[in-house]
Amino acid sequence: MAQALPAGQKWWSGGKSPFSVEYGKLMMWYFLMSDAFTFGAFLISYGSIRFASNGWPDPNVVFRSFPIIGEMKIPLAFVSLMTFILIMSSVTMVLAVGAGHNNDRKGVMKWMFLTILGGLAFLSCQAWEWTHLYHEGAWWGRNPFMNLNGSQSSTNFSNFFFTITGFHGFHVFSGVIINIIMLTMAWKGSFERKGHYLMIEKAGLYWHFVDLVWVFVFTCFYLL
Amino acid sequence: MDNTHAAAEGNNEHGFSTKAVWRTFWILLIITVVELALAILYYETDFLPKHFLNGIFVIGTLAKAFFIIAEFMHLRHEIKNMIMTVAIPAMLFIWFLVAFLWDANSYKNLRNNYDRYHVEKSKTPVKENKEEHKPEGKKPGAME
């Protein structure tokens, strides 16, 4: 569990890292906090507009399609697949970090590779979802879906959907790039030379953050 | 340099448990599957009021968030004061969320009270206008 501070220990007098954590890792946490507030602000503005609206499209009706199979009787099937892919990639990322702790270069490379694959799979799914919705007539400024009660819906629905999932997708994309760089560095032996795999851990924090945001986006747009 | 090395060693002290990682994975998967099952069940049968269901979804999401942060991001195993530097702003964030949603709800109620046109428009079903549903078709009088 969480470590308590031993009595009488001077943590802030210098000479050691106050939280027993590397500076870069702590700063990554605080960057993630700032990014969390940005996403949070987007999602809260979405929630506020939705709370203030009398009607809204039903996600069970809007998000029914599946690649190749076409429309399924089970709504939300495709987005479930996307969630599963992203959570799996988070697991492989944790295993990469674990391999880094054991200085297992080949293990790190294997798990990082799988994480990158997961990220690319998620991006492909999101691209398909966007393309499909675009062909149904949805885009920034265009909303072809009716509200749940049949009344005319506003473009708020599609504007928010594309903006927030786009912003998240951009984070997934940058995360994949960072992971590719991590894989390359591991392959070239940069971490072996440094003696530690701490950078993988920081990239891992970013990747888990991306997964975390998806959990909230998934809930707000598809479940609630 | 020394700090980094010590920190790297310190992380190994509380050990790295693959078992805990997979256990967290299963918990996340089960919560997600339950949420989806409830969503689909609601869609087919309307068995619970939506508000109640939304409450379940929110609690499930917070549980997932807690596990991702605590286990995958390893925050549970950090020094307690560091956890606080993350947890306390998150609590303020909850205040942010509640305040905005409450205000939005109030806006909706006030507007519905005073703007009858708005209320009527939200209840009027969209007329099925065949001509408007052909985005590729040309309107009469359109140029080539």
Distance between the termini of chain A: 33 Å
Instruction: Average the pLDDT over all residues of chain A and give the rounded result.
Output: 90
**CATH superfamily caption of chain A:** Cytochrome c oxidase, subunit III, four-helix bundle
Q: In which range does the helix fraction of chain A lie?
A: 55-70%
| Dominant shape of chain A | globular
Strand pairing plus helix content of chain B: what structural class? Answer: mainly alpha
Global Rg of chain B: 26 Å
Which strand-content bin applies to the residues of chain A? under 5%
Q: What is the CATH topology assignment of chain A?
A: Four Helix Bundle (Hemerythrin (Met), subunit A)
Rounded radius of gyration of chain A (Å)? 21 Å
- Please name the CATH architecture of chain A: Up-down Bundle
What does the overall shape of chain B look like? flat
Task: State the domain count of chain B.
Answer: 2
Number of helices of chain B: 5
Element-level helix/strand string of chain A: HHEEHHHHH
Question: Care to describe what's here?
Answer:
The complex is a heterodimer of chains A (224) and B (144). With 224 residues, chain A is mostly helical. Chain A has one domain (23-223): Cytochrome c oxidase, subunit III, four-helix bundle (Four Helix Bundle (Hemerythrin (Met), subunit A)). Chain A has seven helices and two strands. A two-stranded antiparallel ribbon of chain A has the order 1-2. Chain B has helices at 2-13, 18-45, 50-72, 80-114, 116-123. Chain B is 74% helix and 0% strand. Chain B folds into two domains: 1-78; 80-123. Chains A and B meet through helix 1, helix 3 and helix 7 of A and helix 1, helix 2, helix 3, helix 4 and helix 5 of B.
